[in-house]
Amino acid sequence: MNRRQFLQLAAATSASLLVPHSRVWAFSNGNDDPYSKKLIVVLLRGGMDGLNVVVPYADATYQQIRPKIALQKPGDQRGVIDLDGYFGLHPALAPLMPFWQERSLAFVHAAGSPDSTRSHFDAQDYMESGVPGLKNINTGWLNRLVQELPTRKSPVQAVSIGPILPRIMSGPANIATVAQEAKTRKMAVDRPAIGSAFEQLYSGRKDELSHVYSEGMAAHKEVADAMQKAEAEQNDPMSREQMIANKGAPLPKNFNYFGKQISALFRHDPSVQVAFVDFGGWDTHINEGSAQGQLANHLTPLGAGLADLINGLGPMYKNTQIIVMSEFGRTAKENGNGGTDHGHGNVMWLLGKDVAGGKVYGRWAGLTPGALHEQRDLPTSTDFRTVISSLIGDHLSLSRQQMAKVFPDFRYSGDPFVRA
Asked: C-alpha 343: how far from its chain's center?
């Protein structure tokens, strides 16, 4: 084993959105420290119902078209948490309210992919490739983003949580994959005989390789300890369509320690700069529920996990931005099964200390039939690439030319952060 191979093995064991005073597409001036900035992307597979997450409770049409699943107004026993007098937050996301109040949480409503497909497979593919409407793109936009970051020798600069590399992370840039459960991550060094041999080989030595080995094993132990907390339940019955929509992503309740695990990775190794995690279960055709029920059961561990993530990051949160998105929204009107069908526009969640938060953004026209896409769905009034470009261009010190490589053939078309 040569030195390069050993370093890779040892390291492998360790496993501006809104400029505060101006909502414009800002890019780096080259003076920022590019290595201190972090980005975490969360994809909710299946089409999350954004209208029951950031709820337009003051719109009279909302209650009319959702008689069974509409959430109640603030003040009611099962009402939403008021955000701005018009929109309210699902009560299952109460752990995120401190970040709203400190203005590091914002939402962009009626956002998403401009492609009109209602296919989970196609919509996720377009959101992950970053090139809606084209199926011949063989790289994901997060992989292209990593290629534009300053090169680091660590193989864990970018991390994907899950056993299979997702579409969004595919491409030539090196991406480390970390399984959700410790029992699936056993490595050769976890075997007593091999571990003991390595310990004897490097114990007491003070050279560079010994130092790298010690650091790598310490990181491996921390990651393994964190992963041990992951739940292994897989008992919820799902339809074949739901399993396809999830693409193998766990339900939030089955990976409810994700926030503590990801923050542990970031805390231990400053070279970790980009992370991706996905969750399934958001295809709520039947019995979606309102303040309680199927949707609430997914939002509860997700909200708690995001709060754990932010709290676990500690001081690093000031240099971290988190994006939560889903491939499309749901129909504005509930269906006959107490659920919602595949829709179009949705709500994006944005968290970070340099977010001009405490606001719901987006070009919002209401829920009357004339304001809806094909008289049934929220329109995509804001392209998801506009939101992401406005966020990461400045935050990760990328030039306009670099951003054009992340999202090829895409032109920024105005300020995405119009107040809804």
From this structure: 20
What is the percent of the chain with per-residue pLDDT over 70, rounded to a whole number? 74
pLDDT tens-digit series, residues 377-419:
999 999 999 999 988 888 999 998 999 999 998 876 666 677 7
Closest CA to 285 of 15, 47, 18: 47
- Beta-carbon count within 10 A of 160 CB: 24
DSSP for 208-258 reads: HHHHHHHHHHHHHHHHHHHHTTS-----S---HHHHHHHTTPPPGGGGTTH
> How confident is the model over 36-61, as a mean pLDDT?
97
Q: What is the dihedral of CA 216, 218, 221, 225, to 10 degrees?
A: -130
pLDDT at residue number 28:
42
pTM of the model: 0.81
Sequence letter at residue 118: R
Closest residue by Cα to residue 15 from 227, 284, 195, 234: 227
414: number of Cβ within 10 Å: 12
Distance (Å, whole) CA 261 – CA 257 = 6
Q: Is 320 helix (H, G, I), strand (E, B) or coil?
A: strand
DSSP label at residue 119: -
Closest CA to 178 of 149, 155, 152: 155
The confidence band for 273, taking pLDDT boundaries of 50, 70 and 90, is very high
Q: Quote the CA–CA distance of 347 and 109 in Å, as a whole number.
A: 4
3-class secondary structure, 83: coil
